[in-house]
Amino acid sequence: MKDELGITRLTLYERTDRWERILAYGTDGREQAVDVEQVFASFKDIQTIGSENTGSLGAFDVAVPVYHRDKPLAFLLIGDIDEEEQRMSPVVKHLNFIQTLTNLVVVAMENRRMAQQQLQQVRDKRELELAAQMQQLLVPKDLPNNAKLEAAAWYQPHQLVGGDYYDLLPLGDDRYLMCVADVSGKGIAAALLMSNFQATLHASVGQASDLEKLVHGLNDRVFASARGERFITLFIGLLDLRARRLRYVNAGHNDPLLHDGTRTITLHDGSIALGMMPKLPFLRTGDIELPTEGTLLCYTDGLVEQEDVHGNAYGTDPLERALRDLSRASAADLNAAIIASFDAHRGSEVYLDDIAVLTCRFR
């Protein structure tokens, strides 16, 4: 650099996530303190650095900006070998070559950075796909379909992974522990908390007969994991098909709909969402008879809050209408009708949130 081009001072700044000095030659280090964004904001073309600039840039003569469209990629600062010798400045003499070389180097570095970003995006996508596959293992695929109960579910994550969850755990003697849950937020963080919740629920299934104790324990675990930064809305119920009773707790969740063939009621007794406070301030358990040929529809807010092109939410009216019009339909057929109605409402709009639906048909 010194012998061939007569350049004795050189500094190159490159912008990745932030501006960094990636090359320095013949400098005293003072230019490291330069606020690149502020100092070079107006530099759109090659520009001389005035002799009055005696600060951190005083040792340089010329600044060479490198742009891609309107985006600054780099700034090169260069200085002459002998400022007092009366001859053509080497910087001026070789300026075109220096500018071309700088552009080639910076563009090559930018291409490398973009290639690395693309590789990282491919790796991240693959990891998300694997996470989605693992999350699919958390929700049951084989739901009951027997003489007393038929269940069907629909799960649609907003992204590859989501924070909604449903389950229907057999306890023996025609009893089941059922739940539908929704973690606040979306994406990986919500999915991780939901995975932790699923593991806790399965480990605590032995307490299912004491629903209040189970819910308090779940709240303790969620708060310990999220420290109040996230919470989980939950509808959890103990189905006793022999006694034809449902004991339940609705912890800040959307009210499930229970249709008995003639009317629809909402199940709202419970508490606040899990994890909002170290201890639940109150807890009320609901207890209701399961109607013969009745249907219980549980869902998360992503279903009813989905908007159409006009900004209108889907709401619960279509759900109540489906329960009324298809009161004799199977759980699977009811879900299919709801999905068709939902998709017609959504149209070309993207999913706004995760969606989980669990439908139980009592025989």
Question: Can you offer a commentary on this structure?
Answer:
32% of the residues lie in helices and 28% in strands. It has 363 residues and is α+β, with helices and mostly antiparallel strands. It folds into 2 domains: 2-116, Beta-Lactamase (2-Layer Sandwich), CATH 3.30.450; 139-362, 4-Layer Sandwich (Phosphatase 2c, domain 1). The strands form 3 sheets. Strands 7, 8, 9, 10, 13 and 14 form a 6-stranded mixed sheet that branches. Strands 2-1-5-4-3 form a 5-stranded antiparallel sheet. Strands 6-16-15-11-12 form a 5-stranded antiparallel sheet. Strand 9 (232-240) and strand 10 form a beta hairpin. Helix 8 runs antiparallel to helix 9 (331-346). It starts with a helix and ends with a strand. The model has no long low-confidence stretch (mean pLDDT 86).
The main pleated sheet reads as: 6 strands, mixed
Strand percentage, roughly?
25-35%
CATH superfamily of the largest domain: PPM-type phosphatase domain
Number of domains: 2
In angstroms, what is the radius of gyration?
32 Å
Task: Give average pLDDT, whole number.
Answer: 86
Which CATH class of the largest domain?
Alpha Beta
Secondary structure: number of strands: 16
* Strand and helix order: HEEHEEEHHEEEHHEEEEEEEHHHE
- Summarize the amount of helix as a percent range: 25-40%
Query: Which CATH architecture of the largest domain?
Result: 4-Layer Sandwich
* Structural class by secondary-structure content: alpha+beta
- Contiguous helical run count: 9
Low-confidence stretches: none
Distance between the termini: 87 Å
CATH topology of the largest domain: Phosphatase 2c, domain 1
Shape, please? Answer: elongated
